[in-house]
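Quick start: what a row looks like.
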Amino acid sequence: MTSTPVTRTRIASLDIARGAVMVLMAIDHVRVFAGVPPGGPTPGLFFTRWVTHFCAPVFLFLAGTGAYLYGQKAGSRAALARFLAVRGLWLVLLELTVLRFGWTFNFDYASFTFAGVIWVIGWAMVVLALLVRLPARAVGAIGLLIVAGHDAAAPLLYGVESPSWWLQLLYVGGGFEVPGLGWHVAILYVLLPWVGVMAAGYGFGAVMRLPDAERRRACLAIGGAATLLFVLLRATNLYGDPRPWSATASGMPGALSFINTTKYPASLLFLLMTLGPTILLLPWLERLQGRIARWLRVFGEVPFFYYVLHIPLIHLVAVCISLVRTPASTGWLVANHPLMPPDVPDGYRWSLLLLYAVTVAVVVTLYFPCRWYAARKRESAHPWMRLL
């Protein structure tokens, strides 16, 4: 069967935003393999982690937006639902197999596996496949309700002693053993509120279909309102995050405490802090030109292809650096690292300068296969191309 060239109209601002968060994602994943702690007392350590907080919210939100835009071309809601269900389950499978190997470089699946961001994207797509029969506004409203309301339910959910596996998957997180199989599963990304983020992004897709001037005004209004709401709620510690900020927080300047919101599970303020400014910037990204914009658009066209490649590449670089710095202690990088790491061997931990140098090298290296795959994806009508 031969492929037929197809023409797809893409929205530049969405591709650039996706590409930008993929670059930021590389910073965080290099940090993991560098043995650098998440955050810290110094501004350099803190912001190395903080800037990457935009990745998961934008990734899931724009995945929902992309689902809406795909649905406009799919011809029917039934076709969109089938695509989301198939792709969602495919992502879950890849998370538990291929990506798990990329993170660990071992095949000890039975004693340890994990549910990360690709896992939650996959299940959010499956849930969205059930919701797309509803009008986009209704789906968006459901998403906003979940995002805004889950913090109110948190005390009740976390108050359960010995939570069941389904409650851990839904909200509490942690680890559990699969009955009868003896597999230990670590839950990094719970379904709530991420299902709500993707559903809200699906509703936002209708905004991206508006005429240019209306779309830009809507983005400025939505992004500005979300950012302002974050500032007001955070300043008053009224609602939206289990970790109040303080100008005299122990060991942390007040300004850092203010933006040190909760990611696991993602609080309302965490999501307002990251999604608000992103939506606010979309009208500006529409006009962004130049080489950097072109590079980011390439990554944004094939974000999952980039994701699949960048983890083993970073891991391989880390092993090579370990063979030079701590050759007698490289085994820790082929165990169940980075999710259950032992103490980082003396002499291995990277400086921030090396961390960012490796990040730049990884991103530049990945540009070329991503550019190739993006071109193939634009030219091909094969359905499997949309799965990666």
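That is the whole record. Residues 166 and 192 are 12 Å apart (CA to CA). Residues 12-387 form one domain.
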